[in-house]
Design goal:
Largest sheet of chain A: 2 strands, antiparallel
Number of domains of chain A: 1
Order of helices and strands of chain A: HHHHHHHHHHHHHHEEHHHHHHEEH
Strand content of chain B: 25-35%
Number of domains of chain B: 1
Shape of chain A: globular
Largest sheet of chain B: 6 strands, mixed
Largest interface: A-B, 23 and 25 residues
Number of helices of chain A: 21
CATH architecture of chain B: 3-Layer(aba) Sandwich
Structural class of chain A: mainly alpha
Oligomer: heterodimer
Radius of gyration of chain A: 25 Å
Distance between the termini of chain A: 23 Å
Strand content of chain A: under 5%
Order of helices and strands of chain B: EEEHEEHEHHHHEHEHEEHH
Strand order of the largest sheet of chain B: 6-7-8-3-9-10
């Protein structure tokens, strides 16, 4: 214990000073204000943590600074919103998506195919590009003609803003059902599978310098077959599936939206890592530029699909009760009426924003911690953060672990996005400020340290919320009559200031280890 | 003679530097073979090239009759090669037990080998719950060696086992390596010629990225000229 104290004196003193500052901050405001500010800080901290922890896992193991992480957070929110507000669009999208992915599920088969093809050197260079071009051409022919019932960004009455507003007021705007008119259904389905296979084959030719002798088994085709079956089922049962989803209560639908957003984030992450990032591990600068580019592209895609205006995602009914009995005065009361607000120490606390989100934050914190500490995958991740080469020399397929961790990290960001959507609202810029917060939190907590990410995020969330609150009530400067009100620009500045001070004292962050 | 490993004329580049310029190493099955040579001659790079950590650009690495050059490191290692790197590379954030468990290639490897490991290294049993950071140099070396044979490896590549260790510990390390060589073939990189000559049956001398001489250790011990010329030792 003594050695622990000696080694961590600076850290303990810093933490003590921070705690003292928060206690001092608590003295200046009423109890109810303090409770609300604390909870809000924890909520912002939780969302920041979801982004920061994923980013730090990816950076720690893969050495990839994923600058697109904020954008992926935002994409998670928009995907979740789509499932929640427009389940019919979501169901319509399932079939083509499964078909587009099906080709990539055959990844193990392509190297085998490639060894069978004997070509001249120049043809070998051209072939992958030619295949990708063909695939893009087929896609661009079929996809615009594929019927998907979707909103119309140009037309306000049919725009996401209107759909969201209507859903918030409890009615579902009727949406037109999409049918195959411009292209025959079998042609579209088969064309998508073919285009996907051709494109995936072309991509796989880029990194096929390693020749391996292996046999093909049914396992290499299993994922492909499953995707085809999913596509076929969702195609046949499209309408009944839509009816089931629209018939669900908003609570279940919200749960489905959260799961779909998280899983699509994870899938998107795995896809990005295995196709775009993997060829660039030897060129870190290119990687950085790639993720930066992806971020810009992602924002533009979201703008063109969901439009520029901001809109609010409705909360699930479980957190949205109003009426005479609300706000609830205690949790039993809340449980009975599902009020949107609850009175804690005379302060009105929004249940979803300020209680539910921090709870999810804690649950994720603990589950990822368990994953890291208790499972073999976690053990490999912890070892790989320190010495990738040695893990590989033990015979562990680090590439597969890389893909999983990238998927996990992006999945966490997407989960953060969909959770934040009902409280923050959806906008094209929602990822940027949060990503900046997450980076600051990581710098404070220690760049690749998991508990550090949590601590840093909570500190960033708390300090922002306290500054905002003091902007309203003002700080009385002792021994003077001056009341100082921090202005809004001081909110982001305060986190940066905190980061600068902590980095001056502890250059590796609060919990970061010396290299 | 049957060779478990046959390295044929490999050339390895690190960045733009041409580190290995034609190394040949043949390792008879069941033997201890030492790679000798001065600092920076390319001994460690040879081990890494065998494992594909620094993949050779030319030449062949044949392990148990199959060419493995150009494969991923984890595929090569999975064929049954254990590696003890220079500076041990113990995972600091993992406990001693986790450091051993992570080397499992088949579930249960660790449980099967546990008694054997603790017979060889009684010290490790006592330290089993401690993090890798809290071990001394000698304990780290023991852990690194133990980690290399948790999985059923037929070939162990051991880089500088005696580096930075006290003479007493070097002695026990040598007896462990002898014990291991009963079941596996061992390739040893060793600066300390005394240690190498007492352990190994065969040797390969690497000089400026080329293998220049090979043979049986007994012959080398009498070849004072070669020792002086290539190893700088008396």
């Amino acid at each position: 214990m003594n050695t622990f104290l000696r080694k961590n004196t600076v850290l303990l003193i810093t933490l003590a000073v921070i705690t003292a500052l928060f206690i001092a901050a608590a003295q200046g405001m009423e109890k109810k204000d303090f409770v609300i500010t604390l909870l809000r800080g924890l909520a912002v901290g939780s969302i920041t943590f979801l982004v920061a922890s994923g980013f730090s896992l990816i950076f720690g193991l893969l050495d990839v600074l994923n600058l697109a992480h904020g954008t992926l957070f935002m994409i998670g929110a928009y995907i979740g919103w789509t499932v929640f507000v427009r389940p019919d669009t979501f169901v319509d999208l399932l079939t083509p998506l499964a078909l587009i992915l099906s080709g990539f599920a055959l990844a193990d088969v392509y190297p085998f195919l490639a060894t069978r093809i004997r070509l001249g050197l120049s043809m070998k260079r051209i072939l992958p590009w030619a295949l990708i071009l063909v695939s893009v051409l087929i896609f661009s022919f079929i996809l615009p003609r594929y019927p998907i019932s979707i909103w119309d960004v140009e037309n306000y009455g049919q725009s996401p803003v209107t759909y969201s507003f209507m859903a918030d007021s409890g009615t579902r705007l009727p949406a037109p059902v999409a049918v195959f008119t411009e292209i025959a259904a079998p042609l579209a389905l088969i064309g998508l599978v073919l285009a996907s296979m051709i494109g995936a084959f072309g991509l796989s030719l880029f990194n096929s310098e390693t020749q391996q002798q292996f046999k093909l088994t049914w396992k290499n085709f299993a994922a492909f077959a499953i995707l085809l079956i999913v596509a076929l089922l969702t195609f046949i049962f499209n309408e009944s599936l839509t009816a089931v989803l629209t018939g669900l209560s908003s609570n279940w639908l919200f749960l489905i939206a959260v799961v779909v957003a998280t899983l699509s984030g994870a899938g998107l992450g795995a896809l990005i890592e295995s196709t775009l990032i993997r060829p660039l591990y030897i060129r870190p600068i290119y990687q950085l530029m790639l993720t930066l580019g992806m971020s810009a592209i992602g924002i533009e895609i979201v703008r063109s699909v969901w439009g520029r205006p901001e809109f609010v995602m409705p909360k699930p009914a479980f957190f949205n009760g109003t009426g005479g009995v609300c706000p609830a005065t205690n949790f039993a009361d809340w449980w009975a009426n599902n009020c949107s607000t609850i009175l804690l120490l005379d302060g009105r606390v929004r249940v979803y924003n300020e209680i539910f989100i921090p709870i999810i934050g804690v649950i994720v914190l603990i589950s990822i911690w368990m994953l890291l500490q208790r499972t073999r995958l976690g053990m490999v991740i912890r070892a790989g953060v320190q010495d990738r080469e040695m893990v590989e020399a033990l015979g562990i397929n680090v590439r597969r672990v890389f893909t999983m961790v990238f998927g996990l990290g992006v999945g966490l960001a997407a989960l953060g996005g969909i959770l934040a959507a009902p409280s923050m609202g959806l906008s094209n810029a929602m990822g940027e400020s949060l990503f900046l917060n997450a980076l600051i939190a990581l710098a404070i907590g220690g760049l690749t340290n998991y508990p550090g990410a949590a601590l840093g995020s909570v500190l960033v969330g708390l300090i922002q919320q306290f500054i905002i609150k003091y902007g309203q009530i003002g700080i009385a400067i002792p021994f003077t009559d001056i009341i100082f009100k921090p202005t809004p620009p001081l909110v982001p500045a305060s986190t940066v200031l905190l980061m600068v001070i902590i980095l001056l004292i502890l250059p590796n962050g609060l919990l970061g280890k010396k290299e | 003679m049957e060779y478990i490993l046959d390295v044929q004329n490999i050339h390895t580049f690190i960045g733009q530097y041409h580190i290995l310029q034609g190394v040949n190493v043949r390792v008879p099955k069941g033997s201890i073979t030492a790679l000798l040579g001065r600092n920076g001659a390319g001994k460690t790079t040879t081990l890494k090239s065998i494992l594909g950590l620094t993949p050779p650009r030319e030449g062949k690495v044949i392990y148990e009759g199959k060419e493995v050059q150009g494969m991923h490191s984890f595929d090569i290692a999975s064929k049954g090669i254990g590696f003890v790197p220079e500076h041990r590379a113990i995972f600091r954030d993992l406990t001693v037990e986790e450091n051993l468990k992570i080397a499992e290639r088949v579930k249960g490897d660790y449980l099967r080998k546990r008694d054997f490991i603790f017979d060889l290294f009684p010290d490790l049993k006592r330290l089993i719950t401690l993090p890798g950071t809290s071990l001394s140099g000698g304990q780290q070396q023991m852990l690194a060696i133990a980690r290399s044979f948790v999985a059923d490896n037929h070939l162990l590549l051991i880089d500088e086992p005696s580096e930075g260790l006290a003479p007493v510990i070097i002695e026990s390390m040598m007896s462990v390596i002898r014990e291991l060589s009963k079941d596996s073939t061992i390739v040893l990189v060793e600066q300390n010629f005394l240690v190498a000559s007492r352990l190994a049956e065969y040797y390969v001398i690497i000089e400026e990225g080329r293998s220049v001489q090979e043979g049986s250790m007994k012959d080398l011990a009498n070849d004072k000229a070669a020792i002086h010329r290539y190893l700088g030792a008396a």
